[in-house]
Amino acid sequence: MKSHPNVPLYFVSPDGQPVVLRDMAQVWRAAKERVHHVHDIRLGEILVCNGVLAPARLLEALEAQQHH
Fold first, then answer.
1. Model's pTM, two decimal places?
2. Are 19 and 12 in contact (CB under 8 A)?
3. pLDDT of 46-66, one tens digit each?
């Protein structure tokens, strides 16, 4: 997979652990695993800013989470 200018991505998980997504494959995997249960809005913002996740899809996921 080719490199991306915004990778690696660094952020802190909700439990305080540092998280590093080192390549786009990890970014996509994180998006797919977490899109239905977004705990960390910052991850959602990172994914949207990097074009991995559409803003509308993030909003759908957040709305669905509020109903559970």
1. 0.37
2. yes
3. 888 888 888 888 788 777 766
